[in-house]
Amino acid sequence: MASALINVPARAKRGEVIEIKTLISHTMETGFRRTQLGAVIPRDIIRRFVCTYNGTEVFRADLHPAISANPFIVFSTVAIESGTLVFSWTGDNGFSATESAKISVE
Amino acid sequence: MERRTSRRDFLKTAGGIAAGLGLGAVITVEPARATPAEMAEAIRKVVGSARVTPGKVTLDLPPLIENGNAVPLTVTVESPMTEAQHVRAVHVFTEKNPQPNVVSFHLGPRAGRARVATRIRLADSQNVVAICELSDGSLWSDTAGIVVTLAACLEDGI
Prior knowledge:
The complex is a heterodimer. Chain A is mainly β. Chain A has strands spanning 4-7, 11-12, 17-24, 46-53, 56-63, 72-78, 83-91, 96-105. The termini of chain A are far apart. In chain B, the strands form two sheets. In chain B, strands 1, 3, 5, 6, 8 and 9 form a six-stranded mixed sheet that branches. Chain B contains two helices and nine strands; from the N terminus they run H-H-E-E-E-E-E-E-E-E-E. The chains are: A mainly beta, B alpha+beta. Chains A and B meet through strand 3, strand 5 and strand 6 of A and strand 6 and strand 7 of B.
């Protein structure tokens, strides 16, 4: 299981724009590199990142091999109601990881 | 008539052959590179045939980076981010990476602020293009040039 770091403010005012930072450990092997024997190292990347806020998708990213190892993504959303933000990453070789964070909105 | 190879001729020929071989080796070793034309094609494939106008988007990249394996990139779009007027997507492309596509971010009115950031790999000193798609369907772009000292993707694997 890949380890992920999520930075979401624990509490926010209603209507406030909050910044979310996410980082997940993953090699993001490009598929363009070769071993010293000349064999191509097969591609192994995260293809998609999705963030849902109480079940509604608020942000999505399609990643390509040009994203650095351990993909770091920063985006923002409006704090509408208290609830849970769910982050999920899916990729090659059946890679899948999910993390969640709680936010209380007053 | 006596034909003798002078030292100068010999060196010239030897140098030429060596250069030829060297070039051949470089061509076989060099991974496939995208070109600006391929980037334009990739852009068309993603955003369609509509006109792309420079403006509204700010692409923040350092002008010079030592390590092309992790280049911080920030894209900001001037937009009120309301239901009626918001940024639908932000796409990033490169000229000289093996593949022109870098990332596509899909936003909406719930984003609140049209600002996204990540870290990318760059295989060479080149231009990077960010294109944003607004809710009215218009396309805006920004281009940034960057000098990369140590390229990504070229180092030996395991």
